Every structure is written in structure tokens, then in C-alpha cells.
Amino acid sequence: MPKLKPGTIHPTLEEDASIQRGIAADPDAMEFGEADAKRAKRMGRPRLDAPKVPVTIRYDQDVIDAFRATGDGWQTRMNAALREWLRDHEAA
Fold first, then answer.
1. Domain spans of the chain, in order of start
2. Contact at 8 Å (CB) between 67 and 74?
3. Maximum distance among all alpha carbons in the chain?
4. What pLDDT score does 30 carry?
5. Which residues of 8-47 are buried (b: 16+ CB within 10 A; e: fewer)?
6. pTM tops 0.85, yes or no
7. Do 78 and 67 contact (CB within 8 A), yes or no?
8. Is 54:48 a contact under the CB 8 Å cutoff?
9. Closest Cα to residue 79, out of 38, 87, 69, 91?
10. 4-15, pLDDT tens digit by residue?
11. Where is this region: Disordered (predicted)?
């Protein structure tokens, strides 16, 4: 179970019971059952067939500065430059 943020307050048993009574009395509150869970869609981006791999690598400062100077998306452009180099220097 993930850690909660500092200052998170849990309701007491009495408060929780009051909340549950309020939910039960609300005609607009719907039960979210197993069938609903099966129909639910995942949030966020779809999973990639070939996700990127996080690595730690060291480059010369001037190389990093040059790519960063191109603005947002510099890592994508660096990836494209490396991919282009691989295409041009394919092993025979």
C-alpha cells in the first residue's frame, strides 16, 4: 500500500458510518459493481508496443547544451539524431 501524504486524516468509525448513511440515503448515488468495473476503461495513455527504456548515460556538456538550446523536445530530437546515425552507419 502506498504511503499517504503527511497530514492525511482518516475518518473515525462514527464519521465513516455517517458518510455511508449519507451515501445510502442519496438517490443519485449508484453502486459501482463488478459489471461496472468490467466495462470501465483505463485512464491515461495507451501502452506502447515498444516503450522507451530509461537509462543513465554521460554526454559532453557542449553536446547537451546544444540540444537543450533547441527548446522543449530536445531529448526526442537527440533520440532522432541517434536513430539517424544508426540508419546511416548500418553494419554491412
1. 53-91
2. yes
3. 74
4. 85
5. eeeeeeeeeeeeeeeeeeeeeeeeeeeeeeeeeeeeeeee
6. no
7. yes
8. no
9. 87
10. 889 999 999 999
11. 1-29
